[in-house]
Amino acid sequence: MSESYKRNPNTNCSVCKKLIYRRPSQIKSGKVFCSLICRGISDRKEIPCSVCGKLILSGLNKKTCNRACANIQRTGIKYHLGSPRDKVKSQQALKIRLLKERGKKCERCDYDKYEILQVHHVNKNRNHNNLENLLLICPNCHYEEHLLEKSWLRKKIEKNVK
């Protein structure tokens, strides 16, 4: 490019203050930048760390700048001590109790593989764990108890027979 066509700088970059040339219409529109890097720096949104005040990117949903500040922020929070009531453990305990009291067989069909027996709630309320409401049954009997009454095949056959 020859020296006669070289434009003289007419403004400064909004970020790094480098002298640059921009058209007058670009200058009127607001901020002007010398490069995409400076534009990116200008568009960047930052928030202060809630502990130390250091600037962090706001788009990452972070509240603190690093692990040390996060630990400081969490001091004083009381978490659940011990293990909370675990539903799986309580169901296992129910099954073990029923196996000891009622034997290692299905209470309907006398199937004797106790490892796969399941606890069935007679009134279909899982929170009602009285021993009178519980049965120890095999998966086939359990399936019959819950799903056979809602079977699509039964409905179709009954419709065709009538």
TrEMBL record:
GO terms for molecular function: endonuclease activity; nucleic acid binding; zinc ion binding. InterPro entries: HNH (IPR002711), HNH_nuc (IPR003615). It comes from the Bacteria. Residues 94-143 form the HNH nuclease domain. Transmembrane segments: none annotated. SMART domains: HNHc (SM00507). This is HNH nuclease domain-containing protein.
